[in-house]
Amino acid sequence: MARSARPKRLNLALHAALLPLAITALLAYVGSVIWSIRISLSSSKLFPRNDWVGLDQFQRLFETDRWIVSLQHMGVLAVVYILGVLVLGTLMAIFIDQQVRAESWFRTIFLYPYAMSFVVTGLIWQWLFNPTLGLQNAFRLMGWESFTLDWTVQPDMVLYAIGLAMVWQGSGTTMAILLAALRGVDEEQWKAARLEGVSKPRYYLSVVLPQLGPAYATAFVLLAVALVRTFDVVAVMTSGGPGDASEVPAKFIIDHLFGRNNIGLASAASVVMLVTVFTVLAPLLYWRSRVQARQNAGH
Questions:
Q1: How confident is the model at residue 278 (pLDDT cuts 50, 70, 90)?
Q2: Which of 160, 162, 171, 175 is nearest to 122 (CA)?
Q3: Which of 169, 191, 199, 287 is most buried as measured by Cβ atoms within 10 A of its Cβ?
């Protein structure tokens, strides 16, 4: 009886230890979401108001040119950032999967940028793209007088500069996720493919990568969340400029929340982003869970 009671007491203690975390998540996250939705349906400006204006804030939001531009910019960054990270992360994971020497060193080097915050990443790449202090000036001092790398001051290139910085910062995490998945692939498949005369690149493209669907789904979810939250790197590198050439939704929300004292419009924008993320990611997470369930059932 004493032995059976001990696991129950231990289980109760574990649940009690997790209770503060659950309460914090409920109040801080769920509560803030509910509060944002309520404020977005009011006429709140500097201070919250308890009135009801329906969808007026959302109508005003989509009549704001700056918001529409920020959504378009997020679409460009989505292609550059997510696609770039997935491709580069896949190549790095495949490279390390070849049992290279000093594997731990390569893993550390590839993961090192992720240890930096987006603020530090923004500062590094702001300096690199600075026409008077960065790479452009360094190459010209070495004799390449025609070398130009001033993307952060060019409206048609600034988003690609930000995307490049984000790819550099985020590729290591995707590499780690995909490498863990690659190490779970049965090596007998490569032996069988080699007997059939299949080359290594074709083996990865046709046999291995299709098996990494859940890992890619996990990486995509993390990247999509990071994309929606993109603020620090933009604020540090360009402050949304030149003009509004690098304006993104998160910066629009922060500016209206703290700079323009319009919490109603900022809350409406945050609700739109929440709904967008949920609409995109919910089906993906459901598909990922179904695939993993089938894989577990197969084993």
A1: confident
A2: 162
A3: 169
